[in-house]
Amino acid sequence: MAAESCLTRNEWICGEYVSSRSDELGDALVEHVLITAGAVGLAVLAAFPLALVARRWRLAAGPVLSLTTILYTVPSLAMYALLLPVFGISASVVVCGLVLYSLTVLVRNMLTGLASVPDEAREAARGLGYGRVRLLFAVELPLSLPALMAGVRIATVSAVSLTTVGAIVGHGGLGNLIYSGMDSYFKAQVLTASVLCVLLAVTADLLLLGAQRLLTPWTRHRAPRRAPRRDTALDLADGPADGPADNLADNVAKGV
Amino acid sequence: MDVIPDAWTWLTTGEHWSGESGVWQRLGEHLYLSGLCLALACAIALPLALWLGHGGGRGFGGALAINISNAGRAIPTFAVLVLLTLGPLGRHGDLPTIVALVLFAVPPLLTNAYIGIAEADRDVVQAARGMGMSRAQLLARVELPLAFPLLMTGVRTAAVQVVATATLAALAAGGGLGRIITAGFATYDTAQVVAGATLVAVLALTVEGVLALAQRLLDPARGRNRARRRAPAAAPAAPRTPAAPEPVERSTP
Predict the structure, then answer these.
(1) How far are the Cα atoms of A146, A244, B52 from residue A233, in angstroms, in the given order?
(2) H-helix or E-strand containing B100?
(3) Which one-letter DSSP state was computed for residue A10?
(4) What per-residue confidence (pLDDT) applies to B253?
(5) How far apart are alpha carbons A105 and A153 in whole angstroms?
(6) Which residues of chain B neighbour A65 with C-beta distances below 8 Å?
(7) Do residues B3 and B191 touch, judged by C-beta distance below 8 A?
(8) pLDDT tier at B248 (50, 70, 90 boundaries)?
(9) In this structure, are residues B103 and B45 in contact, taking their beta carbons and an 8 Å threshold?
(10) What pLDDT score does A40 carry?
(11) Which of A9, B48, B130, B165 is such that its CA lies 20 to 30 A from the CA of A50?
């Protein structure tokens, strides 16, 4: 009976593996989600003040942008290795590496988003007596959400796949299963973990897309009602997602 | 913390550089793998992007290029590398690594080259067509020069990506500089790990720098830009710089 099992035959697709190791898979998945979500969350928190500084003082824009871009050219394996002496062997190494990678995409997209806020909206808010802070949080930030969310989506998807490399320090989530499966030549484990990883990336992307649509109801309602201005409205809403920003993200994306 | 001096000592020790698993050997493997894969990826992606962008079904081509690039980001390179190593390709030496690297270099090359060609200034293209240029002339003398900056951006991205990914090959028992890092991990030699990581990071930055310089020197619109004050090259450059500081500057009171 045991010889019939797909585990002993070491097949790529094996239902028995999934059912017998569901705990292990679940733990890895949870670790993967925690690392990715923590990293992207921290990166958003760090990128926001950086983007504001880069916008406010032109002198700061160059260094901020080039520093984050340089960070992006450091290979993931090297990044984790370089952070190792700082944090020791812990999940912080992976989280910190991912935060540094996400900064590039996030800072650029925030700047794009803030720059794309129409001047009329800004003037109107100022005319209503909005101060600097209220203008930022009540007008500029909501209006730049589409660009910001496009950046968050790109950063999240990349982070999901980069987390696997964290297996080198033992905190790669699903990457740990891929790594140990490679050593033991355990095909079912490698394939299952890889597929889960891709599914996780796609799910996260769709969830963020849903969140973006919920957070920016005006981009949905405006387009049909104001037919003549449709092009501009769509440009503002979709531009950063499929056009320049996406392309920009590719410029820096390594997908390792 | 004396990791950094230790890493420096590791790097300046001559015997670490020579021999079968020395730095020179690993660097050679790394450059050979990266160069080969980049060349293969260019050979696949650039003609396809030119064809798609030049008119091979504009809507379809655009969707294809963007989707390939988005999907590429979601797929973990490390997983693909391991899957290929365990699969039937695994018995053929470097082949799994090469396939994985080419696979991941294609999306940025394809997307950037496609967008560069497809968004080449339509007025200029129309004018060239009106002057009686054939399709081949149009591609070689108008669209390609206009798309050059974006095309080179794709090549640079792909090159850095390939250099970075080649590091992962070491995890799957391939060659390259990553081997220094993984060997350091295996023997708990933090100095060696940091030294190896520094070498890889420096190599990635060097490749980026060399290609950026090459782009500046090879740009077909270089002389003309100076003469005509950047008029022809302004169009394809526009979609590339959404984060340009100018509009930001204007908006500050």
Answers:
(1) 12, 16, 28
(2) helix B95-118
(3) T
(4) 28
(5) 10
(6) 243
(7) yes
(8) very low
(9) no
(10) 96
(11) B165
Quote the minimal CA–CA distance from B117 to chain A in Å.
Answer: 14
pLDDT of A245 > 80? The answer is no
Share of chain A above pLDDT 70, in %: 84
CB contact under 8 A, B197 and A185: no
CB-based contact B104 A255, cutoff 8 Å: yes
- pLDDT digits 0-9 by tens, A152-190: 999 999 999 999 999 888 888 999 999 888 888 888 899
**Displacement of CA A84 from its chain's centroid (Å):** 22
Residues in chain B within 8 Å Cβ distance of A60: none
Shortest alpha-carbon distance between residue A107 and chain B (Å): 9
Token reading at B168: 């992962």
Residue-by-residue DSSP string for A60-95: HHHHHHHHHHHHHHS-HHHHHHHHHHHH-SSHHHHH
Question: What is the complex's ipTM, to 2 decimals?
Answer: 0.75
Question: Searching chain B, which residue's CA lies closest to the CA of residue A201?
Answer: B74
DSSP B189: -
By C-alpha distance, the chain B residue nearest A60 is B245
Average pLDDT over residues B99-127: 85
Tokens in use for B26?
Answer: 């690993």
Burial bucket for residue B250 (CB in 10 Å: 0-12, 13-18, 19+) = exposed
Residue B1, CA distances (Å) to A197, B190, B191 in order: 36, 11, 11
Cα A47 from Cα A124, distance rounded (Å): 27
Long-range CB contacts (within 8 A, 24+) of B194-197: B194/A81, B194/A82, B194/A84, B194/A85, B194/B3, B194/B4, B194/B6, B194/B7, B195/B7, B195/B8, B195/B10, B195/B11, B195/B16, B196/A78, B196/A81, B197/A77, B197/A78, B197/A79, B197/A81, B197/A82
* pLDDT tens column, A39-68: 999 999 999 999 999 988 888 888 888 888
